[in-house]
Design a protein that fits this description.
210 residues, SH3 type barrels, 6-stranded mixed beta sheet, 5-stranded antiparallel beta sheet, 25% helix
């Protein structure tokens, strides 16, 4: 699908994009490898009440650990509970930041474009507990390519991804002093997920359905 957004709308969405991203839960991504159906329990014990069930092959985000038990959030239902660690296989690292909640040293991928924006993204990373972005590359012809982390791709909603992409686009536009630009955000397969490119009426946004 595609839509056109004016510059004022883009600017208004930046704060929403970053606050929406902060709603995502931190942790590694695991796939359920046990029997056809695995119990989702209310606590880290076989004695705890069964809160629900998770199908083999479903993915979950690790929230916390207690011994051999893993506190998780189920994708895409959002249910939370505990699963025995032996029934999970890690499929993507979260890129966790220091456990004390501080902002990690080094840049968040945007330092060459804007130190203040990079500092803001590092703060969001600290709130999330993991990095939003793996890589930021200027590919030429006015194109900036942003590669998100698997954790943020799978944790954040499509709306959050879209609004963050708009924020990245506005940053890139400012850096290029208003010249025509394009922003490409890839998915976890490295394929184009969101593209924002300047058109005759302003930035045109295309979001590729999964």
């Amino acid at each position: 699908m595609s839509a056109v957004y004016g510059a004022s709308t883009v600017a208004a969405l930046i704060a929403t994009a970053l606050s929406s991203a902060a709603l995502a839960a931190p942790g590694d991504i695991h796939r359920v490898t046990g029997a056809d159906v695995v119990n989702l329990r209310a606590g880290p014990s076989d004695e705890s009440n069964i809160r629900g069930s998770v199908q083999a092959g479903d993915e979950v985000i690790e929230l916390t650990r207690d011994g051999n038990w893993v506190g998780v959030r189920v994708l895409p239902t959002g249910e939370e509970g505990w699963i025995y660690g032996g029934l999970l296989e890690r499929v993507a690292a979260s890129g966790l930041l220091p456990g004390d909640g501080t902002v990690a040293a080094g840049d968040a991928g945007f330092m060459q474009l804007s130190e203040s924006f990079d500092r803001l993204i590092r703060q969001v990373n600290g709130d999330l507990g993991y990095r939003m972005v793996d890589d930021v590359v200027q590919t030429g012809d006015g194109v900036l390519q942003v590669t998100p982390t698997p954790a943020w791709l799978r944790s954040g909603s499509r709306d959050a991804h879209m609004m963050a992409a708009l924020a990245f686009y506005q940053l890139w536009k400012n850096h290029q002093n208003g010249r025509p630009v394009a922003l490409v955000m890839t998915d976890d397969r490295g394929e184009e997920y969101i593209r924002i490119a300047d058109g005759d009426l302003g930035p045109e946004l295309a979001m590729i359905a999964p």
